[in-house]
Amino acid sequence: MKFKKSFGEKTTDIVIFLIMLFVITITLYPFIYVIGMSLNKNTLTSMDTIFIFPKDISLHSYKTLFSDPLLWKAYYNTIWYVAVGTVINVIMTMLGGYVLAQKRFFLRRKLNLFIIITMYFGGGLIPTFMLINKLGMYNTRWALIIPGAVSAFYIIIARTFIESNIPESLYESAKIEGANDIGILIKIVIPLSMPIIAVLSIYYGVGHWNSYFGAMIYLPDRNLHPLQMYLIDIIVKNSSRVLEDLGIGVERTLEMMQIKYAVIVVAILPVLLIYPFVQKHFVKGVLIGAVKE
Known about the structure:
Elements lengths: L6 H33 L2 H6 L12 H7 L2 H33 L6 H11 L6 H10 L17 H14 L2 H9 L4 H12 L1 H17 L2 H6 L8 H9 L14 H38 L6
Helix pairs in contact: 1-13, 3-13, 4-7, 4-10, 4-12, 10-13, 12-13
């Protein structure tokens, strides 16, 4: 049986639709504008005449950008940091979450308290820098991986998920069959925790992709810089190394303006392309383990 919507309900639907359309528009417009400016001819870019679409398409800025070998090094470094860092993050987080989810573990409450304290208090930048330097990680890739190998917040999420979704009886049955803790973790906990592993992988991966502060502090070697540092060099520091052959003058300035837009597109496009396929996991990450029965 179909029910007709009342006038008030139809009005509410229209208002909600208009509000969402407005939100989508103001969200997408900056991306569309930057893409349009990066594809426009530099002479038109300087006049800021684009509203949505480019008036005279030119790929010259991308050709100039892609001819820079440092861009490809930055891309490779970022992919390395994301891949290696995410694997280490997920392993460490699941190990911590599994241990803290075991009610029979006698240090469970004390470790939980210790981990929660680290969420509110840190050693500070200078002591951390001195520690990394003393450990020999300064100006190495591991300076961006090891210090942030695990997040206290994500350990709590993993622990809550394991507690809520894997019953104690399953552990007891495995123990009766002769399984040890490592066997239980690998053969039972990990297969049943794939939803939280997917969420952790996405969160950690996006964090590594967007990270730049660690590289700014610990990596003076530009050959180790991630893509975000390359973006900062072009936009914030106004680096013009890719345009050394143009000399000084109006042409160099116009070219630099368009390079800035192009490098923004290059940096954010992979995330924009991947996000629609994984956005459901972001929503799950907000809800997963939040309610415990």
